[in-house]
Write a structure and sequence with these properties.
Pfam families: Lipocalin. Helices cover 12% and strands 58% of the residues. The chain is mainly beta. The chain has a ten-stranded antiparallel beta sheet with strand order 4-3-2-1-10-9-8-7-6-5. Strand 9 (111-118) and strand 10 form a beta hairpin. Helix 1 runs antiparallel to helix 2. The radius of gyration is 14 Å and the shape is globular.
Length: 130
């Protein structure tokens, strides 16, 4: 696996509003999120992984691969997530009381594509390594 630890700057988003509507995020929060251009940092310390999102607000997730854990999503929902890693792809299955979201983070050189799928809705966020 390539070293994908580091900081990534948000470049653009696709279809994010439809995803946020699907999970029940209110209009004001959706509007702020669409205007926000977050930076994300990925760290690996032994078998512990960290995702730190900053910008409008800071959001930290710490996890171990394969272990389901309860966490707060960026939008404040309480979810249960399980993370797996295959090659340069980090996959998160996020479950809340209303459904399941699959978040696939693909690291390709200095580019990161995050694909978020919920039902028939697919959103993407694109990042560039700093």
């Amino acid at each position: 696996m390539a070293n994908w630890s580091g900081k990534y700057k948000h470049i653009k988003s696709e279809n994010l509003d439809d995803y946020m509507k699907e999970v029940g995020i209110d209009f004001a929060t959706r509007t702020a999120a669409k205007a926000w251009s977050p930076n994300v940092e990925y760290k690996i310390e032994g078998d512990t992984y960290h995702i730190i999102t900053s910008g409008l607000k800071e959001h930290k997730i710490t996890f171990k691969l394969g272990a389901e854990q309860e966490e707060k999503a960026m939008d404040g929902r309480t979810v249960k997530s399980t993370y797996t890693l295959e090659g340069n792809t980090l996959t998160q299955i996020e479950k809340d009381g209303k459904g399941e979201t699959k978040i696939v983070r693909e690291f390709n050189g200095d580019e990161l594509t995050v694909t978020i799928t919920r039902g028939n809705i697919v959103a993407k966020r694109h990042y560039k390594k700093e």
